[in-house]
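Inverse folding, one chain.
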């Protein structure tokens, strides 16, 4: 992962981070998020269920479902076969 840009808020703290992920990093993140339920996500941080759901839906809907007919699961199987 490569951090491309960090935008700061009025207090000088990171408000928005633009990152570049490899396909494997995105697949890893989607795999973790896909196995986590809302209760576990909320244990990580308040609002975690909504954040987890939004991240997972973005990764699967905009990336994996677009390029693999079987979505992230098919991409994961391809990756496992290649290693």
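Residues assigned per position:
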């Amino acid at each position: 992962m490569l951090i491309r840009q960090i935008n700061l808020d009025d207090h000088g703290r990171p408000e928005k981070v633009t990152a570049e992920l490899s396909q494997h990093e995105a697949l890893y993140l989607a795999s973790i998020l896909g196995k986590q339920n809302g209760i576990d996500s909320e244990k990580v941080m308040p609002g975690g269920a909504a954040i987890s759901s939004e991240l997972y839906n973005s990764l699967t809907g905009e990336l994996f479902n677009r390029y693999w007919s079987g979505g992230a699961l098919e991409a994961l199987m391809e990756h496992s076969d290649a290693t």
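The chain has a mean pLDDT of 92. The helical segments are 23-35, 38-44, 48-67, 71-82.
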